[in-house]
Design a protein that fits this description.
Radius of gyration: 16 Å
Number of helices: 4
CATH class: Alpha Beta
Largest sheet: 7 strands, mixed
InterPro entries: AhpC/TSA, Thioredoxin-like_sf, Thioredoxin_domain
Oligomer: single chain
Pfam family, one: AhpC-TSA
GO molecular function, one term: oxidoreductase activity
Structural class: alpha+beta
Shape: globular
Protein name: Redoxin family protein
Order of helices and strands: EEEHEHEHEEEEH
Strand content: 15-25%
CATH topology: Glutaredoxin
CATH architecture: 3-Layer(aba) Sandwich
Length: 179
């Protein structure tokens, strides 16, 4: 059995930079939209994953509701620039998508990492899905990681829950009891 590091709610989100197609670099976990104080980072497997394409397109449908409660959205994968340029043709999204997540960065995020089954799938190891909600203090408010593409949080429930949490004057970060 292997041991691995996992980020937990209440941790400071690590400093991780990734690339955007326009040539700029973005720091994951930092808000990018004016008026947003919280940030959602969605890690997806890459262009080879049809479930990821579906999930990112579905996330676009919730982007406005998230913006209404002060949460902006970004997605990232280990794909190359060329792979993202090809994938973007199948996506109908307006939120930023970054590329070039390294295995070191995947480990910093505590993500599960998989090898491609064959070279037609992709040409590099890739992260399995993850969702990180970072609050205004740069702290992980919520974290969800999966080892399979079919296990992801239902976006309607995520948005509903975040709407509730953001409406409270104070709401603790859940799941922080150590044992």
């Amino acid at each position: 059995m292997t041991t691995s590091f996992k980020l937990v709610a209440g941790d400071a989100f690590p400093t991780i930079k990734a690339n955007l197609l326009d040539g700029s670099t973005v720091q994951l976990g930092q808000t990018i939209t004016e008026g947003a104080t919280w940030h959602m980072v969605v890690v997806y497997r890459g262009k080879h994953c049809p479930l990821c394409t579906r999930y990112l397109n579905l996330l676009e449908e919730y982007k406005t509701k998230l913006a209404d409660i002060g949460v902006d959205v970004m997605a990232v994968s280990a794909d190359s620039k060329d792979q993202l340029e090809e994938h973007i043709q199948k996506l109908n999204v307006s939120f930023p998508i970054a590329y070039g997540l390294t295995e070191v960065q995947m480990k910093q995020l505590g993500l599960y990492v998989s090898m491609p089954r064959h070279e037609q799938e992709t040409d590099h190891n890739f992260a399995e899905p993850g969702m990180f909600i970072i609050n205004e203090a740069g702290t992980l408010q919520s974290v969800d990681i999966s080892n399979a593409p079919s296990l992801r949080p239902e976006l309607e429930i995520v948005v509903h829950g975040l709407t509730f949490v953001r409406s409270q004057e104070t709401y603790p970060i859940r799941g922080t009891v150590e044992y």
